[in-house]
Structure prediction request, 319 residues.
Amino acid sequence: MAAKRLIDIIDCDYLHPGFAGAFLLVEGPAATARAAFVETNTAHSLPKLLAALARRGLRPEQVELVIITHVHLDHAGGAAALMRACPNATLLGHPRATPHMIDPSKLVASARKVYGEEAFVKLYGEIGAIAEARVRAMQDGEELGWGGGTLKFTHVRGHANHHLVVEDSLARAVFTGDAFGLRYPALQSRGLFIFPSTSPTDFDPREAQASVRKIARSGASRAYLTHFGALEGLAEAEEQLLAHLDFSEKLLEEAVRSPFSGSELEADCERKLREYYRDFSESHGLGFGDAEWELLGLDLELNAQGIAFAAQKRRVKPA
Ligand SMILES: [Zn+2]
Prediction:
């Protein structure tokens, strides 16, 4: 029988249920199975990740790979804790991401500054260092034979300059991190609603569109989104993401010319983003109510911040 891949979606219950996940890949019968995680969420999620293993009858020793799409802490904040629990695992990431896993001091310092000590600990817990010998940087296009198939790593810019996506040949699936939008299950009741993450500090609309196209045309029939879950119909998602990124680019250009800066510019971008998505949801009959707008609120705020940040960067150094 041909090798078959099991993929479990783990809801890490980060901020809300159905908001951020991690994935467990398994191949082979439990006793001899090989396992890999894609994404780790935060250190607080470790019990959930280990429980997912146990549900498949697997031991942490059987985990061979821990893959992070990028270092943002809802993706990689729990990497050190998971690596400590899984003694045979190797951590794989983008060459610009892996140094921050070996020495997380800069990452931790900047998150502490953004969130403040109390919120930082509550959200992320402890972020430890991972021994260099257990970390491997994956080049663009690099392939790794694993578990009866091939994992292919592709560098994608636009959301973060140190972001990669992983294609699993056996599952015909691609793990997209934040490079193929956010699609919360709670917002799908009246049709597809998928939108890009344009959060600080690397947002680039053209690069983001190139990444979306690359992923949609990768040949994968299913995308696994960290936020959140499995997505089929990549072409429809691509079309919607490209449209939202067109608007994001227009907004960025306006913001470059805007008389506002700092928090005033962010507020202005957020107001325009809200207006845009309100129009979109109405014209597409998505019927969002207060609960849906509240769920979207955090991302709209972060997306506005990312666009304002990119605009101010361009004022200093035109792209
Ligand atoms: Zn991210």
Observations:
- The chain has ten helices and twelve strands.
- The chain has two domains: 5-171, 242-316.
